[in-house]
Amino acid sequence: MELYFPTEFGERLAYCSAAATALIGFFMMFAPGYTYRILKLQVRDGRTEAYGEARSAGGFMLGFGLVAILLAQPMIYLALGASFGVAAFGRILALMSDRGSVIVGLLLLVVQAILSALPFLYGLGYI
Fold first, then answer.
1. Which of 8, 15, 7 is nearest to 127 (CA)?
2. What pLDDT digit, counting tens, does each position of 94-124 carry?
3. What single DSSP character describes residue 2?
4. What is the pLDDT of residue 1?
5. In this structure, are residues 11 and 40 in contact, taking their beta carbons and an 8 Å threshold?
6. What is the pTM of this model?
7. What distance in Å separates the CA atoms of residue 120 and residue 38, rounded to the nearest whole number?
8. Is residue 29 classed as helix, strand or coil in its secondary structure?
9. Looking at residues 14-36, what average pLDDT do you find?
10. Is residue 77 within 8 Å of 14, Cβ to Cβ?
11. In whole angstroms, what is the distance from residue 80 CA to residue 73 CA?
12. Is-contact 58 95, C-beta < 8 A?
């Protein structure tokens, strides 16, 4: 089985979104402490279950990104885009209702919106 690299521009953008998802997931899975520092989160003393949650979420993102890369189907890209779209909506809710860092929240919202738009637009046939 060969690794397929897309030839169309729109599919390349969706592919890049899937690759970024897999890379973020890999980082979250194998470096949860750094992930929490980047997101400005803290693990309570003696409660290391939070690392397991980061590893689990990272594993999900890694698996989803790799499947999108390996299968390279428009419906998979639609699912990836829709998932990041819902995550971006959750980020908007967090910005409106939580009292967290607005700058970090806005930066992550932009990243999630881009990671949502690229595969979603390709899957719908706009690019």
1. 8
2. 889 987 778 888 998 999 999 999 998 998 8
3. P
4. 61
5. no
6. 0.87
7. 27
8. helix
9. 93
10. yes
11. 11
12. no
pLDDT level of residue 75 (50, 70, 90 thresholds): very high
Q: Which two tokens stand for residue 96?
A: 């409106």
Q: Is residue 119 within 8 Å of 18, Cβ to Cβ?
A: yes
> To which residue do tokens 């060969």 refer?
2
Q: In which residue are the tokens 């607005």 written? A: 102
The CB density around residue 53, as the number of other CB atoms within 10 Å, is 12
Report the candidate in 118, 13, 15 with the shortest Cα–Cα distance to residue 72.
15
Residues 60, 25 contacting (CB under 8 angstroms): yes
Tokens of 2: 């060969």
Dist CA 57 CA 62 (whole Å)? 9
Phi, psi (deg, nearest 5) at residue 101:
-70, 120
- The DSSP result for 102-115, as a single string, is HHHHHHHHHHHHHH
Tokens encoding 49: 């279950």
